[in-house]
Amino acid sequence: MIEAVTDLPPIIVADLFGLHASTADRWAGYANDSWTPYLAARDRQPPPPLRQRHALSECGPGCC
Predict the structure, then answer these.
(1) Smallest Cα–Cα separation from 17: which of 2, 29, 31?
(2) Do the Cβ atoms of 6 and 19 come closer than 8 Å?
(3) How does 20-59 read in b/e, with b if 16+ C-beta sit within 10 Å?
(4) CA distances from residue 25 to 8, 40, 51 in whole angstroms, order as listed
(5) Which residues contact 13 (CB under 8 A, 6 or more apart)?
(6) How far apart are CA 8 and CA 26, in angstroms?
(7) At a CB cut-off of 8 Å and minimum separation 6, what does 28 contact?
(8) What is the pLDDT of residue 20?
(9) 8: buried, middle or exposed (CB in 10 Å: 19+, 13-18, 0-12)?
């Protein structure tokens, strides 16, 4: 159904699947293929800490 709501207007999807128009419209919002909200959320998170480099002679089991 998610693929259908990305290709068809929600009112058509509602008729095809026997859904209420507002339900199909909500599913169309869920299926939004925009990356904007994801990228905005990612920008709000602090970057992960950098791993400190060390000499290979300092490595233990499972280190690198």
Answers:
(1) 2
(2) no
(3) eeeebbebbeebeeeeeeeeeeeeeeeeeeeeeeeeeeee
(4) 11, 23, 45
(5) 1, 4, 5, 19, 24, 27, 28
(6) 13
(7) 5, 6, 10, 13
(8) 93
(9) middle
What pLDDT shows up at residue 18?
94
Tokens 């300092």: give the residue: 58
Q: Report mean pLDDT in 10-residue bins for the chain, 64 residues.
A: 76 91 87 74 77 70 68
For tokens 């499972």, what's the residue? 62
**Integer Cα distance of 28 and 7 in angstroms:** 9
Q: What distance in Å separates the CA atoms of residue 64 and residue 16, rounded to the nearest whole number?
A: 54
Confidence (pLDDT) at 16 = 92
